[in-house]
Write a structure and sequence with these properties.
alpha/beta; Rossmann fold; Heat Shock Protein 90; 3 domains; five-stranded mixed β-sheet; about 20% strand; elongated; disordered N terminus; binds adenosine-5'-triphosphate; binds magnesium ion
Length: about 400
């Protein structure tokens, strides 16, 4: 749509004097405007019901309903309230002019008028309306784009949660292997002792007590796992140390099979946020460290992987660092690693969304920052969150 086209707009003229109506109509039609003449307020209001004009020229003194009343009615109508109204009147005093603007008019032309003046004012107001409509449209588009972006981000969080669920299920399988073996051994030995007549109270007590220990451990794992997938419905104060330990607790058994140790050090910190999102952050970072260590171990089979998580608390901010001995991040790509879909892992082994999500969560939910750097033996990720003063 261009301005020229709009300026040949649809104009409703409301005037009870036939000569005025005719004159205005001829001036405006000569300049390619489309004119809808109306001889009184009621007819004008009816006419806008079927189709809205782009602009209204409105006389003030008319029988039955004067121009001010017509204007008020138009401004009360949500569909018509944004149509620019130019008053045309022989009333030349300030009071009436002020009133015309007060009831919502955008301009005032005094009779007798010059054709050029009418044309200039009509053109100006049509242009303003066009620009405003355009700005509103852009604004709406922008809002829609933002909304879509938010939805996409939400979807990404969900996706990465599903991926994390798979990881967690694997971690649980590892954690259960050991206690399941112990339970199997006890069950077998109960049968054997029974067959040999050795099934005394002492043996039974020990078998029951130890079996219960294993079962409790297994059920704790499940509780922990359930926690992880609770919906993020409310922000709360929570302990970062406990939050991290819960993750580590679930991962430790599986990581041991890869010769990887995880250590957690430092002060406890109470923060305000969604505990699950923080667990997601830590899980992504820990898994990245694990991947880096695993690929180092391909060349150096003896390498014992170490992932070290440290918490630092100060009055104004807190810091969490995750460092590993996985060889570090290639300096040539380090500036790109937080971008969505950036990955150096082979097909299907990485989506490249992990660090993007981590950054989003830290930015959005914690108002903090995350940076990556290289230490002597591997990567260091540093999360910083400024404390909010009450
Ligand atoms: N601890 C680390 N050591 C070395 N490189 C790392 C480390 N963490 C991240 N990277 C690099 O950053 C890239 C992007 O990481 P990101 O977590 O976003 O995606 P990904 O791990 O490749 O895929 P996904 O997280 O979906 O499994 C990785 O492919 C890797 O090259
Ligand atoms: Mg990752």
């Amino acid at each position: 749509m261009n301005v020229e086209k709009i300026s040949n707009g649809d104009i409703l003229i409301v005037d009870d004097t036939p000569t005025n109506l005719k004159l205005l109509t001829s001036i405006l039609t000569a300049n390619s405007y489309n004119i809808r003449p109306s001889s009184n307020g009621k007819l004008a209001l009816r006419s806008i019901e079927s189709k809205l004009p782009d602009l209204i020229l409105l006389d003030i003194i008319m029988p039955d309903m004067n121009g001010f009343e017509v204007c008020k009615k138009l401004k009360e109508n949500p569909r018509a309230k944004n149509i620019p109204i130019i008053f045309i009147s022989a009333l030349d005093d300030i009071k009436n002019k002020v009133k015309a603007f007060k009831v919502g008019g955008v301009d005032y032309i005094t009779k007798p008028f010059e054709a050029e003046e009418v044309l200039a004012r009509v053109q100006t107001h049509l242009k303003i309306t066009f620009l405003q409509k355009n700005a509103n449209k852009q604004n709406k588009l922008l809002k829609e784009t933002l909304k879509r972006q938010r939805q996409q981000e939400k979807m990404l969080i969900e996706q990465s949660k599903t991926a994390a669920m798979g990881e967690m299920a694997r971690a649980i399988a590892h954690q259960w292997r050991q206690p399941l073996n112990v339970l199997a051994l006890y069950i077998q030995s109960i049968q054997e002792n029974f067959e040999y007549g050795d099934l005394d109270k002492e043996f039974m007590d020990e078998a029951v007590e130890n079996s219960m220990k294993q079962l409790n451990f297994m059920s704790e794992t499940i509780d922990n796992f359930g926690d992880y997938f609770k919906p993020n419905d409310k922000k709360e104060n929570f302990s970062l140390l406990k939050n991290i330990q819960k993750n580590v607790y679930l991962l430790v058994a599986e990581f041991k099979t890869h010769n990887i140790e995880i250590e957690v050090k430092g002060d406890d910190i109470i923060t305000f946020g969604y505990p699950n999102t923080f667990r997601q952050v830590m899980l992504n970072l820990i898994n990245n460290s694990k991947d880096a260590i695993l690929s180092q171990q391909k060349e150096n089979k003896e390498l014992i992987g170490i992932i070290s998580i440290e918490l630092f608390n100060s009055e104004s901010e807190y810091k969490v660092t995750i460092s590993d001995n996985g060889g570090g991040i290639n300096e040539a790509i380090i500036y790109k690693i937080f971008e969505p879909y950036f990955t150096t892992k082979f097909q299907n082994q990485g989506t490249g969304l992990g660090l993007y999500m981590v950054k989003e969560i830290i930015d959005r939910y914690y108002n903090g920052s995350i940076e990556a750097s290289n230490g002597i033996n591997g990567a260091i990720f540093t999360i910083k969150v400024t404390k909010i003063k009450n």
